[in-house]
């Protein structure tokens, strides 16, 4: 089924990558200085400008250019050519290219270490990684990829963090925090430093006791970062509870919700077929199968063809469950009754978070498990394979999922490939990736081809990485 966090990207970005176009004369001087230093790969001059939090991720107000974009874009062939015109005849163009890219790597690395945001988009809807990929700059792309992985792993840790509380309900503070909070209350609140409020600072500046701060200091809240990135046609993301309350519409090519979000589409069929072949090598007969997320029933129809000894399906949406019981679907009551033993074939109604613990209590075990839900973020997939798959998957079993993580753009897809691989390893699982070609002939344009009648594209890539997960050892 479709992933829910998407940002549609034009597959054929046409961009003016010149310095004049990306850092126009209207750019605020303080922002322009940082961007131009990054563009020139002048690390010595750039470092002092990054001393204040937020400076590494400033954005040009109209083009959305960040220091990362500038450092990468300066390596575009036309920009290197312009730079080479000023070099001495004793140096070759190849020497200049090598020197320029090495300096660019140093600057990009420094920006990331100073807090630059890896997935900021510019007015072309490109992240720095997208830009590096378009320009064929593999080393810079790799730096963006590594930064994205670090950021997503850290985000995952912070998302799971719960603030400790004392027995009486008060938050536990580190030594000195309580004193600092009292200073804030007495000295002007969160904006105060060392117990001084703004009035204290101003008076001391007038008296000459402290040096006045430069007017061009850029902080996280600086209005020059108020660039509005291009918005996807689909608007806000769908959450699980909203999706479960929505009405669904079936036709032969797609399943959409009441907002025309694509829940599942027929173009995924080839991916489903390859997934079944990976989960059931040789399309083995008589295996025990669990599928989470019925949707259009594409993969369950393929599973059924293998005549499994057990075939359990978990589905939460009332409209899908109604469809399952209709004459148009072959997975209703008659199918359940056709199982080799009582309860061998069953559609479990409800959220998997509620159903799966019951299956564990009943001692159910499976040879193949597939996970493909809608309206849930990555944290739910991770929770499933970390907390539940180890108890459900029998020895020698195989686990798979629809890999639509970050499928709106290549850099995000690559980042999540690395992240999920690390998390699977933490859960005691190996993953093998098989890269499949995706026929993009009907998937290129928003609202056309396969996307006609669908609110937004949730897939923009010509390659699909199919995961096959097994227990280590």
From TrEMBL:
Function: S-adenosyl-L-methionine-dependent protein-arginine N-methyltransferase that methylates the delta-nitrogen atom of arginine residues to form N5-methylarginine (type IV) in target proteins. Monomethylates ribosomal protein L12.
EC number of this enzyme: 2.1.1.-
Record-stated family: Belongs to the class I-like SAM-binding methyltransferase superfamily. RMT2 methyltransferase family.
Region (Disordered): 1-23, 73-101, 164-240
InterPro entries the record matches: Arginine_N-MeTrfase_2 (IPR017408), RMT2/GAMT_Mtase (IPR051038), RMT2_dom (IPR026480), SAM-dependent_MTases_sf (IPR029063)
Subcellular location: Cytoplasm; Nucleus
Principal subcellular localization: cytoplasm
PROSITE patterns: SAM_RMT2
Protein's GO biological process: methylation
Enzyme class: transferase
GO annotation, cellular component aspect: cytoplasm; nucleus
Top-level taxon of the source organism: Eukaryota
Self-association and partners: Monomer.
One term of GO molecular function: protein arginine N5-methyltransferase activity
Naturally occurring in which organism (per UniProt): Monosporascus ibericus
Name this polypeptide is given: Arginine N-methyltransferase 2
Domain (RMT2) ranges: 236-473
Key words of the record: Cytoplasm, Methyltransferase, Nucleus, S-adenosyl-L-methionine, Transferase
Ranges of biased composition (kind: Acidic residues): 164-181, 208-221
Skewed-composition ranges (Basic and acidic residues): 198-207
UniProt feature, compositional bias: Polar residues: 79-91
